[in-house]
Amino acid sequence: MTATSLFDKVWDHHVVVPETADTPAVLYIDLHLVHEITTPQAFGVLRDRGLPVHSTERTIATMDHATPTRPVRSLKDLQTLSTAAAAEQIVAMEKNCAEFGVKLYGFDSDNRGIVHVIGPELGATQPGKTIVCGDSHTSTHGAFGALAFGIGTTEVGHVLATQCLLQRRPRTLAIDVEGSLPAGVTSKDIILAIIGKIGVNGGTGHVIEYRGSAIRSLSMEARMTICNMSIEAGARAGMVAPDDVTYDYLAGRPLAPKGADWDKAVKRWRQLVTDDGANYDRQVSVSIDELKPMVTFGTNPGMVVGIDEAVPSDSDPGFQKALNYMQVEAGKPLLGKPVNVVFIGSCTNSRLSDLQAAADILKGHRVADGVKLLVVPGSQKVKAEAEALGIDTVIEAAGGEWRESGCSMCLGMNGDTVAPGKLSVSTSNRNFEGRQGTGARTILASPLTAAASAIRGCVADPRTTLH
Amino acid sequence: MEPITTITSQTTVLPLDDVDTDQIIPARFLVSTGRENLAEAAFADWRYDADGKPKRDFVLNRPESKGASILVTGNNFGCGSSREHAPWALLDYGFRAVISTDFADIFRNNALKNGLVPVIVDEAVHRWLLDNPGAEVTINLEQAELVLPDDRKVSFPIDGFARYCLVNGIDQLGFLLQQSDAISEYEQTRAWPV
Ligand code: SF4
Known about the structure:
Chain A is an alpha/beta fold.
């Protein structure tokens, strides 16, 4: 038998019709996650053609992108807190889910939240599944050994109507991460360093498998942070082979298998490892023993340096444009640069361990004068768990704001934005021009670096701020 | 969908690498529930100043860009989010094709599904196009060829199935729906139920 990789195994199990020179493969999708932004036109196509949703039990909906981070208890709340267009889109989502029989975790649900936070939290995300969503950060779910990738709205329609997609087999890239994390350095810094190394198109056309001792020693939440940003390296998917860490995380979750089914599932999942000698199209190695907290200095996630390292110089006009936009000087480190806003949240870093890490730094301190700190849990469940631990109290005592869950300032669609020209340190995943609001400038960093920067009022090194 | 066989137009050149989908259409425009009326949103933050006035130095606002339906850009166009609003906005603006050395995967897929032709060229041809804004070129989709003003024909890679669908105006959902027997069989007999 030929040696196959984790990706090969998951892919091969889901081929309904094999690809040929003339036609792509028909690939079966086990779990389809939907949110309000990328679905109205897809439901519209179903309606126009008189088609039902093929498999409502494989479809889960939530609302996260345009939702307010103030409590919404009624339609009136929604209309007051949102723009008319955003409210209309959210109402359309409720209507579409009701009409097509799709389970919606809406404002009345304790399980509402960012789609990539609730999938794992509910136990819907499982090893060996194919998972798609009209959202590029679907790569997050690959942390469980699933093949998970983002699709466009037309393809959302395809999956709603047929539970399948037309796909060409992607190439594979193995990234071996070895070593152990120094204090004050996190999985966010690992993935930022990887993107810096392979570039924002380094993974284009590939599915990444993250392997090695460093990955094995990470928690599920830390693995999700890494897989989440695979798309920032151009890869549609990132995967980690499941192990006991994965099973411990999933055991007992509401949608995870129970009893004898659980035992059977774990037995199957244990087969989802890459065989010795399996081939990848490319391989890259990274050592993290000397890794520093990483910060971005430009307008894409590949423009990244160690926090105390000088910003590089480059004569490329695009590079110059990015430095001008960011108001950053080549040859100097970002350390000490005054900041206006600190955002802790997004599907990259809004889980309980992220908020706990930030709270550990903030405890007993005050946010620096003139700095706005916004902390937005990834889901209502994360919010409740954090509140049970008193994390909200620590953040509010420090002068930060504690909100309802959602995407919030990650993309600034719901009114939570960074004002033009202001500089934000953010735990999200994209530092594109205007991503957090028109004219906003964004530095991507870990929750530790973000919390340290909030206290100091400037880009600060968490290694020297830790208690 | 309308069949697409050839596109002939002057080029508009936006010589930047890694143009992301937040630039192609900023997030605040994603609250629409349709695919239309997105022309104004295309490159909105680069096209308009804070008062909503067109920025004179942005290439789409220059008189010579008027009517051009082929956009030439730097490497790795369309990186970032999966928003299909990006090709919708470019199409609504009037573009029919984008030429680059390389596209982000999801953007390229989305473009192909909507009849915005992504054309991948090598460095040398790319250099020539960047250096000659406004050149009149033809994209022959049936032959998968880009025809330069000196009649030089450069073939470009494009998935055969996607091209077949575009040239014949075939919608891929129709094709998938025809596979329903295979899909039911898979659902009933799959070796590894999840
Ligand atoms: S948190 Fe940000 S990156 Fe994640 S799904 Fe929401 S908008 Fe997208």
